Amino acid sequence: MKTMADRTVLVTGAAKRLGREIALYFAREGWNVIIHYGQSTQEAKAVVDEIHGLGVKAIALQANLLRPAETEFLIKKSIDQFSRIDCLINSAAIFEYDRPSQDDHLVSADLIERHTQINLAAPVLMAQAMFRHLKSQPISKDFVPATIQILDQKLINLNPDYFSYTLSKSALLTATEMMARDFAPYMRSVGLAPGITLPSGDQSQSEFEKAHQVTPLGHSSSAQDIASAAFFLANANSITGTTLYVDGGQHLLASDRDVMFKIKQ
Fold it and tell me: pLDDT tens-digit profile of 163-189?
């Protein structure tokens, strides 16, 4: 098995979409990979098989991120398998539409709670569990482990679409900065904010392609862009408590609607 200093990354939501691309990128760089999944058993197994084909180690672990006990146990099971985690990347998230002013998509307590549990509480609980393990280990200046939170460019360019989702990610942005202070020098805490990267919801391919171009550069982020940025942050020992926006400059364009709705107008 080829490894990069025997380093291990845990990627949540890694059976599909962006999480899958991030997991495969790290595997190509020689890292051991832990594939977290919720219900996508077959897809997770397929990613593990693909990583094994690259000659590196990988396992798939299931956990329901709505259940705090399973969330924290995911870290324990990962450490049991590989002795430590060098990077935790929280890609798993829910992204459901609501907006307080729209009667057919009103904000509800249930929707706020589900977004908060999966998009905020689970990442924080996992980072905390990872820190508790690392603080009993020797500190190395050559490599400082990291948690990387996948955020969103809209946090710097707020609009009320996807209200509960945006609230949860805004809180995670704040938590990322707070954890950077609390977990140093044992662990770094970093945010990574993509632009519109993959089609979402009922968005057609044509609508996605149009929205993808609404940036100063004429293109937003690709999955490869985000994966390579995550790998850079995982190895950037002096970066903590900040967020890297990888979005073609999308966050620079003020908008009163989410970009996927702007191109429909």
Answer: 999 999 999 999 999 999 999 999 999
